[in-house]
Design brief:
With 160 residues, the chain is α+β, with helices and mostly antiparallel strands. It is built from four helices and seven strands, in the order αβααββββββα. The protein has a single domain, classed as Alpha-D-Glucose-1,6-Bisphosphate, Chain A, domain 4, CATH 3.30.530.20. Strand 4 and strand 5 form a beta hairpin.
Protein backbone atom coordinates (compact mmCIF):
# COMPACT_ATOMS: atom_id res chain seq x y z
CA UNK A 1 0.00 0.00 0.00
CA UNK A 2 1.47 3.36 -0.98
CA UNK A 3 1.43 6.37 1.32
CA UNK A 4 -1.05 9.05 0.21
CA UNK A 5 0.57 12.31 -0.91
CA UNK A 6 -1.38 14.13 1.82
CA UNK A 7 0.76 12.38 4.42
CA UNK A 8 3.74 14.41 3.18
CA UNK A 9 1.95 17.75 2.75
CA UNK A 10 1.66 18.70 6.43
CA UNK A 11 5.31 18.06 7.26
CA UNK A 12 6.55 20.09 4.32
CA UNK A 13 4.31 23.04 5.20
CA UNK A 14 5.28 23.44 8.88
CA UNK A 15 7.29 26.60 9.55
CA UNK A 16 8.86 28.38 12.50
CA UNK A 17 8.49 27.16 16.07
CA UNK A 18 6.28 24.05 16.10
CA UNK A 19 4.22 22.88 19.08
CA UNK A 20 3.76 19.11 19.05
CA UNK A 21 1.64 16.87 21.23
CA UNK A 22 0.97 13.12 20.92
CA UNK A 23 -1.12 10.58 22.76
CA UNK A 24 -2.01 6.90 22.37
CA UNK A 25 -5.74 6.18 22.43
CA UNK A 26 -7.23 2.71 22.87
CA UNK A 27 -9.52 2.97 19.85
CA UNK A 28 -9.50 2.60 16.10
CA UNK A 29 -8.47 5.49 13.88
CA UNK A 30 -12.01 5.49 12.49
CA UNK A 31 -13.54 5.97 15.94
CA UNK A 32 -11.12 8.79 16.77
CA UNK A 33 -11.70 10.40 13.36
CA UNK A 34 -15.42 10.48 14.07
CA UNK A 35 -14.74 12.33 17.34
CA UNK A 36 -12.42 14.74 15.53
CA UNK A 37 -15.04 15.62 12.93
CA UNK A 38 -18.35 15.48 14.83
CA UNK A 39 -19.46 18.93 16.04
CA UNK A 40 -21.22 17.64 19.18
CA UNK A 41 -18.23 15.48 20.11
CA UNK A 42 -15.79 18.35 19.53
CA UNK A 43 -17.71 20.55 21.95
CA UNK A 44 -17.33 17.84 24.63
CA UNK A 45 -13.54 17.52 24.58
CA UNK A 46 -12.27 20.71 22.89
CA UNK A 47 -12.80 23.31 25.62
CA UNK A 48 -16.50 23.71 24.73
CA UNK A 49 -15.76 25.13 21.29
CA UNK A 50 -18.36 25.24 18.53
CA UNK A 51 -17.00 24.28 15.11
CA UNK A 52 -18.59 25.10 11.78
CA UNK A 53 -17.25 23.61 8.56
CA UNK A 54 -18.15 21.36 5.65
CA UNK A 55 -14.86 19.44 6.15
CA UNK A 56 -14.12 19.95 2.44
CA UNK A 57 -10.61 20.97 1.35
CA UNK A 58 -10.51 24.68 0.57
CA UNK A 59 -13.63 25.43 2.61
CA UNK A 60 -13.66 27.60 5.76
CA UNK A 61 -13.61 26.36 9.33
CA UNK A 62 -14.63 28.54 12.28
CA UNK A 63 -14.31 27.99 16.00
CA UNK A 64 -16.16 30.02 18.60
CA UNK A 65 -16.68 29.90 22.31
CA UNK A 66 -15.06 31.26 25.43
CA UNK A 67 -11.43 30.87 26.52
CA UNK A 68 -10.25 32.05 29.93
CA UNK A 69 -13.33 34.27 30.25
CA UNK A 70 -13.00 35.86 26.81
CA UNK A 71 -15.29 35.21 23.85
CA UNK A 72 -13.49 34.22 20.67
CA UNK A 73 -14.16 33.44 17.03
CA UNK A 74 -11.21 31.84 15.29
CA UNK A 75 -11.08 30.92 11.63
CA UNK A 76 -9.15 29.06 9.00
CA UNK A 77 -9.40 26.87 5.91
CA UNK A 78 -9.40 23.07 5.60
CA UNK A 79 -6.15 22.04 3.87
CA UNK A 80 -6.20 18.23 4.13
CA UNK A 81 -9.06 15.86 4.89
CA UNK A 82 -7.71 12.34 4.46
CA UNK A 83 -10.02 10.17 6.60
CA UNK A 84 -9.04 8.56 8.91
CA UNK A 85 -5.39 9.61 8.68
CA UNK A 86 -4.75 13.35 8.40
CA UNK A 87 -6.68 16.51 9.11
CA UNK A 88 -4.96 19.83 8.44
CA UNK A 89 -6.26 23.38 8.51
CA UNK A 90 -5.01 26.92 8.82
CA UNK A 91 -5.91 28.80 11.99
CA UNK A 92 -6.12 32.46 12.99
CA UNK A 93 -7.21 33.80 16.36
CA UNK A 94 -7.89 37.50 16.99
CA UNK A 95 -7.03 36.76 20.66
CA UNK A 96 -3.38 36.68 19.56
CA UNK A 97 -3.65 40.45 19.13
CA UNK A 98 -2.18 40.42 15.63
CA UNK A 99 -3.68 41.59 12.32
CA UNK A 100 -5.54 39.08 10.15
CA UNK A 101 -2.72 38.50 7.66
CA UNK A 102 -1.38 35.22 6.22
CA UNK A 103 1.86 35.46 8.20
CA UNK A 104 -0.17 35.40 11.44
CA UNK A 105 -1.90 32.09 10.71
CA UNK A 106 -0.89 28.73 12.15
CA UNK A 107 -1.08 25.42 10.36
CA UNK A 108 -2.67 22.71 12.49
CA UNK A 109 -2.04 19.09 11.49
CA UNK A 110 -3.65 16.12 13.22
CA UNK A 111 -2.28 12.71 12.23
CA UNK A 112 -3.63 9.29 13.23
CA UNK A 113 -1.41 6.21 13.05
CA UNK A 114 -2.86 2.82 14.11
CA UNK A 115 -0.62 0.64 16.27
CA UNK A 116 -2.14 -2.66 17.37
CA UNK A 117 -5.27 -1.93 19.43
CA UNK A 118 -4.26 1.70 19.87
CA UNK A 119 -3.98 4.71 17.64
CA UNK A 120 -1.28 7.36 18.06
CA UNK A 121 -2.74 10.85 17.61
CA UNK A 122 -0.20 13.59 16.92
CA UNK A 123 -1.07 17.26 16.65
CA UNK A 124 1.34 19.90 15.37
CA UNK A 125 0.91 23.69 15.28
CA UNK A 126 3.47 25.81 13.47
CA UNK A 127 4.30 29.52 13.32
CA UNK A 128 4.44 30.12 17.07
CA UNK A 129 5.98 33.57 17.58
CA UNK A 130 8.16 32.72 20.59
CA UNK A 131 9.37 29.71 22.53
CA UNK A 132 6.93 30.67 25.31
CA UNK A 133 4.05 30.75 22.79
CA UNK A 134 5.13 27.35 21.45
CA UNK A 135 5.26 25.88 24.97
CA UNK A 136 1.82 27.32 25.82
CA UNK A 137 0.32 25.96 22.59
CA UNK A 138 1.84 22.55 23.29
CA UNK A 139 0.37 22.56 26.81
CA UNK A 140 -3.08 23.47 25.44
CA UNK A 141 -2.92 20.74 22.78
CA UNK A 142 -1.79 18.17 25.36
CA UNK A 143 -4.85 19.06 27.47
CA UNK A 144 -7.14 18.79 24.44
CA UNK A 145 -5.68 15.42 23.40
CA UNK A 146 -6.05 14.15 26.98
CA UNK A 147 -9.72 15.16 26.91
CA UNK A 148 -10.13 13.52 23.47
CA UNK A 149 -8.63 10.29 24.86
CA UNK A 150 -11.03 10.26 27.83
CA UNK A 151 -13.98 11.06 25.56
CA UNK A 152 -13.21 8.33 23.02
CA UNK A 153 -12.15 5.64 25.48
CA UNK A 154 -15.24 6.03 27.62
CA UNK A 155 -17.39 5.77 24.48
CA UNK A 156 -19.19 9.00 25.35
CA UNK A 157 -22.85 8.72 24.60
CA UNK A 158 -22.29 5.59 22.56
CA UNK A 159 -22.26 7.79 19.43
CA UNK A 160 -18.52 7.96 18.98
Amino acid sequence: MSTPWAAFFPLASMTGLVAKASIDIAATAERIWKALTDRAAIREYYFGTNVQTSWKVGEPITFNGEWEGRAYEDKGVIKTFDAPRTLAYSHFSPLMGKPDKPENYHNIVVSLVPSGKNTRVTLEQDNNATEDARAQSQKNWEMMLGALKKFVERGAGGSV
